[in-house]
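Example S7 (structure tokens).
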């Protein structure tokens, strides 16, 4: 069904995989919204979340439960044997005895990939430090696709912490399957890391790197803003200096991009004013809703590949 055995990074995902996720998410959308089916009856999801999460964990667990499966979980490093020094691969080997599929979040880049080497069942990366967050990227893609019915031809601004924000690292790689125009808006200190820019160049993606918000948000189809990732800063004074680099309010959106969609992976701090929440272009809560259908699609697809 999918070309990958584990969902670790967008690098393994093909355009056909993205479109398969869209198709399955459409199929599961109604069930995702407070229904249930028996597609995964008897299957167990192991949810290992070694870093804080509200949405991603609840959404992933809900995606399993709404398909008739069940969930076992470990929340936080303190309560796991990783704390005792057990290796990621051993932990994976062990959890594979209990679960048919594993969703994992961990603070270190590359940790979920390392874990997957020891796993006998499919592993889903639900965020590895400042690395990747492929399920979020897929639900972001699906949300854009549902509004416009296409991805080709869209002008998309990614705003905020492009250095540490794993959601945007994964999202650009999936957007690159389509003819999009990318505008990367960040302060100099939070620019998209060089390796991602190199990758965009290699793929011939039409993108630019800028820092002025208002001028560059003009007439975009999508404005996607991220939280400045406090937990990734060594120097908290630097975080304080950068945290309010950009603040989007409703008046700004109505002035510069009145027909656009405003997205955020959440949690939001002050970067989106609450007066945007009832604006028709606000899509961040729709992203959360779509997340369940998309994760149902991912889990179903991995267990049927
Ligand atoms: C994001 C994450 O964890 O990377 N949240 C999420 O999964 N929806 C974004 C963030 O924490 O800023």
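Recovered sequence:
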């Amino acid at each position: 069904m999918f070309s990958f055995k584990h969902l670790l990074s967008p690098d393994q995902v093909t355009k056909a995989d993205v479109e398969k996720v869209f198709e399955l998410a459409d199929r599961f959308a109604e069930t995702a919204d407070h229904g249930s089916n028996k597609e995964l009856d008897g299957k167990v999801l192991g949810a290992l979340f070694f870093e804080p999460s509200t949405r991603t964990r609840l959404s992933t667990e809900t995606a399993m439960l709404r398909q008739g499966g069940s969930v076992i979980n470990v929340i936080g490093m303190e309560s796991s044997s990783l704390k005792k020094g057990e290796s990621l691969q051993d932990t994976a080997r062990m959890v594979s005895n209990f679960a048919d599929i594993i969703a994992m979040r961990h603070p270190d880049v590359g940790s979920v990939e390392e874990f997957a080497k020891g796993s006998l069942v499919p592993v889903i990366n639900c965020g590895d430090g400042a690395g990747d967050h492929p399920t979020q990227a897929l639900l972001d893609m699906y949300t854009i696709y549902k509004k416009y019915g296409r991805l080709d031809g869209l002008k998309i601004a990614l705003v905020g912490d492009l250095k540490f924000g794993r959601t945007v690292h994964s999202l650009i790689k999936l957007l690159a399957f389509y003819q999009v125009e990318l505008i990367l808006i960040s302060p100099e200190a939070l620019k998209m890391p060089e390796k991602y820019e190199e990758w965009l160049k290699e793929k011939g993606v039409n993108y630019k790197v800028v820092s002025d918000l208002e001028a560059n948000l003009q007439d975009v189809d999508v404005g996607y803003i991220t939280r400045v990732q406090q937990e990734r800063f060594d120097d908290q004074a630097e975080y304080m200096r950068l945290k309010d680099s950009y603040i989007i309010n409703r008046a700004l959106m109505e002035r510069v991009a009145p027909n656009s969609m405003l997205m955020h992976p959440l949690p939001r701090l002050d970067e989106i004013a609450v007066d945007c929440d009832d604006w028709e272009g606000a899509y961040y809560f729709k992203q959360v809703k779509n997340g369940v259908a998309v994760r149902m699609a991912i889990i179903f697809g991995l267990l049927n590949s």
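Notes on this example. The pocket of N-carbamoyl-L-aspartate is lined by residues 55-56, 127, 133, 136, 166-167, 226-227, 229, 265-267 (CB under 6 Å).
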